[in-house]
Amino acid sequence: MSSRILPNFDLLVPNSTSEAVNLLAHYQERAAILAGGTDLIVAMKMNYESEILISVSELDGLDYIDFDPNSGLHIGAKATVSQILDNADVKQHYPALWQAANVFATPQIRTAATLAGNVLRGSPAGDCSCALLALGARIVLQSTEGKREVAIEDFWTGYNQNARKPSELAIEIIVDAPQSATGSAFHRMTRVNEDLAKLNGSVRLDMDGNVCKSARIAMGCVGPTTLRLPKTEKLLQNEEITPELLAHVADMVPTEISPIDDKRSTAEYRLMVSGVVIKRLIEQAATAAN
Amino acid sequence: MSQFSVIGKSVPKVDAYEKVTGQPIYAADLKMQGMLYGKIVRCMEFAHAKVIKLDFSEALKIPGVVKVLGPEDVTQTTYNTGACDEMVSDKVGHLLGDLKDQSIFTDHVRHQGDAICGVIAISEEIAERAAAKVIVEYEPLQVFMTPSEAEKTGTHQLHPDKANNMAFQLPEAMFPGNSYGWGDADEAMKEADIIVEDDFYVNKQKQCQMEPHAYIAQVDGRGRLNCWSSGQMPKITHQKIARLFNMPMSMVKIHSTTIGGGFGARLGIIAEPETCALAMAVPGRPVKVQTLREEDWIISESRHAGDYWMRLGFKKDGTPVACQARFKANTGAYFTHASGVPFTTGAWLSGMYKFGALGYQGESYFSNQAPAGAYRGYGNPQTNFVLEQLIDRALTQLDLDPVQWRLNWHKGVGDDGWCFGVKYPSCQLSECLKQGAEAIEWNKKLAEFKNQTGTKRRGVGVSVMNHTSGAMPMLLEHTVTTVMMNEDGSAVVATACSDLGQGSHTVLHQIAAEALGLDMNEVTLKTGDSDANGFDIGSHASRTTYVGGNSILEACDDIKKQLLERASKHLDTAVENLEFGGKTIFAKHNPENSITTAEICRLGVYNYMDPETGEPEGAPGQIFGFSSHFAKHNSPPFGACFVELEIDTETGEIELLELVHTHDIGRTLHPAMAEGQMVGGAQQGIGMALTEEIYYDEQGRAVNSSFTDYKMYGSSDMPKMKVILVEDPDPHGPYGAKSVGEAGLTSPVGAIANAVYNALGIQFKEAPITPEKVLKAIKENGLNFA
Ligand SMILES: Cc1cc2nc3c(=O)[nH]c(=O)nc-3n(C[C@H](O)[C@H](O)[C@H](O)COP(=O)(O)OP(=O)(O)OC[C@H]3O[C@@H](n4cnc5c(N)ncnc54)[C@H](O)[C@@H]3O)c2cc1C
């Protein structure tokens, strides 16, 4: 059972990134980072405890979303899902991410929730996370030792596990720059509109006419982390997108996932619909590319 | 021009401004001087267990803990949190086998969440921390969750008097063969050309009212037990609490707090016993018990799930010759509404169609699920899901149109209603069917969908229902009203009728204003105070407008009679010559000869002597009207619901496109609120049909007892909706009104199931119809949509 009462903690509110990383260097595992709190506070009402919370709320200059055609999209750690939704560059160049933000939670939650929090929480049902995995992204981590970048496919190392060290603060997410004919799409299935996904998927295609030069395909709620589907991606590479190919794709997808039965759906159902979802996303992404 | 000045208008809800500006006081908002906090320790690990060790020592060490009470520290009197026991005579209660089998704290956990003991502390936080320190050791017992498990030989018996865990069966003494209906259904079935028959499962749905249960209790300086409760039946709460603690009702006071929705969840009592017991241990100090959503979920009752078998027989031309049904309800761990729901589930069945013969058996079984009880519809949606699908299955075989067949065979004026011997006084179901069919373009869509292709398939479905306006003659329907005329002619109407948010206070207000010829702001309602309000059975069975409204009309008639008698003296003419014209009373043939009701009321109170004549000015005495009203009828409303939906046959997902909701309302007293009831009802009916169910794990623990994983349709999920209110004043209802409270939930359930059937040609026997079930069925049936 949950509780209306939070466990005791000390709240530290650093004013700068350097102050934040110093605090992290000092407290290490004893501290948790608090962004929008839409995952963390919920967890604290259930069973999660952390002696120290370090809030990002007063860190200067981390709420940007900047697009550069060459270097891609730069999303500061404090940027919220609402900001993603309001950003014209995201909508134009990264439709998958915009679509994920568009169905994400409710206006109240979107206003508080950060994109970084979504990735750092690493839930296999994370919607923006799924889109980012398909789009190609890097997580920029900073500590007193310096900065490093981790590719998103290497970031989630297992259920509730990721590559961040206790001393590191995620400061930015960089999404790969689109090619001349890149299209992307995101879709999730839920029980009702305001819900967590029972299955989500995202596709990015780099196209040349009707030929797919390369594909990135991500699917969530079908394994311990959001997964990439490399065999399915390979089926598409340098191929013309035809109904026959899509039928192959639809058959391949379920072989790459390992869903379970849980409160939101069944393994059987997820296996049955996974191919359909990806097939439709490919069609959508291909259309978006051209 | 309407003949009414207030009735029939969407006047502002009396509490709307307060509500949207956050002013009403819910129990959770109340803070009192010296208030303590209670936390009930509940068994969350097991659904069935014996407590073998209970140790408070560690909890008592925590600073700020005042007391910890166990089963022995509170009254040993047992009770029933439902309300059926107060609504039938003891004699009937005995025949039905009703039980009072609940206790404040228990050492025999019968369902997850059963209360073990209670902590009192100076803050909510300390109470919760101390509750976690109470040491309870359990010995797990065999868990059984369904009627079929419950009745198996060898299963643990939950109550010694109830063999095979059968909590209730229609009693032989009242219903020979443990069955009711008419004719000989077995014999009649032999005449059928076609028979459809199946076993269905109906789901356990939760009311999901917005406000989680919260209570405060305090024994005051005079030794009176005060309880702040958001119950929807304040006078039943009053009586039950007084009896439980063996106190005269005069020593118990129930303060009704603003109610944040009920839908049946607040019918009877919930955690008032625990809260009062804690308060009695610390006389003088108020004690507040606030539940969490997960706690609310398992301590308040849900809809009855169950197994529902039905068999219908028809002639080739569609004549319905026989209906047989058996509902095995899952009542959960305690008796609560074990008799009421399986009884009425068949009543709605009986009230619907002109079958040649009908036989219904209703039973309920104990299990280790959280108790079931009242939920908007009270058995009706369960019947709707089963009956309406089977009807359509037969009609497909007979190649008959679902709307036309229902037009031909629904019961109507003069037929026996849901309660035998009480005939329908009004019925506009045919009109509802016609207008609804037109609104959704039934014929056109039905024809179109026969030839559809592609992976997305559309379907339309119809379902009809009958309900009730109050539960007479089965249950007591009694409301007391007093109307006090102020000395300026405005009025105070006192009644215990509660407003759960549905707007009953606004409608009761309108009825009083209309009857007395006053403006809305010249009437006020006095409710929520058990000292000031006479008896009222409480809000249930869609009865508050109908029974409460008639009670107010009766009390207002008493006022009018007295006003006319006084006017007759003032104006020196016989009462027969007078006309009550709202705020003035005048002589019919000489309207100049008039007096205002305000003047009559003023003179009655300020009854001075005229210095010139030495006589009193006017008749003395403040005017009070009174009624102790017993409902004379139950004027059932009818309704038809039409649904259009689209199914993605590759994913099993169902999208509701349009829902047309028609209702035989008698007369609409408040159009906006009546529509609101239909829309809100539809939302819950949709939930029952498509998304809502409480799931349990293998150990009998609820896995989705909060909104994270119990999914209701939200506003963005709702289809386009059209509400059609068909008016035809009923002879018994206040101003001709019939009920609209529960009805809106019922027919969407069957209409959705039938629209799915129309789209896919598959019927689903288990509610809710989820995409998982739809896709599986499409594959199992080898259907290929392209
Ligand atoms: C009602 C509700 C609905 C929701 N619906 C959805 C939905 O539709 N789709 C979806 O994907 N999610 C949903 N969520 C989950 C949640 O809102 C998202 O995961 C959100 O993006 C988390 O962001 P946050 O800023 O609130 O993170 P927080 O809760 O503050 O943090 C989440 C985790 O990330 C860590 N973290 C945050 N920022 C940093 C940083 N800069 N550096 C290092 N670590 C960091 C925190 O320590 C914590 O472990 C929902 C949650 C709720 C309560």
Explain what this protein looks like in three dimensions.
The complex is a heterodimer of chains A (290) and B (786). Chain A is of the alpha+beta class and 290 residues long. Chain A folds into 3 domains: 10-55, Uridine Diphospho-n-acetylenolpyruvylglucosamine Reductase, domain 2, CATH 3.30.43; 65-175, Uridine Diphospho-n-acetylenolpyruvylglucosamine Reductase, domain 3 (2-Layer Sandwich), CATH 3.30.465.10; 182-289, Enolase-like, domain 1 (2-Layer Sandwich), CATH 3.30.390. Chain A has helices spanning 17-27, 40-46, 81-86, 88-93, 95-103, 107-112, 115-121, 127-135, 152-155, 230-236, 243-252, 267-289; strands at residues 10-12, 31-34, 52-55, 65-68, 72-76, 137-143, 146-151, 156-158, 161-162, 169-175, 182-189, 199-208, 211-220, 227-228, 239-240. Chain B is α+β, with helices and mostly antiparallel strands and 786 residues long. In chain B, strand 19, helix 16 (504-516) and strand 20 (523-526) form a beta-alpha-beta unit. The model of chain B has no long low-confidence stretch (mean pLDDT 97). The site of flavin-adenine dinucleotide has 29 residues of chain A, from strand 2, helix 2, helix 6, helix 7 and strand 10. Flavin-adenine dinucleotide binds next to strand 2, helix 2, helix 6, helix 7 and strand 10 of chain A.
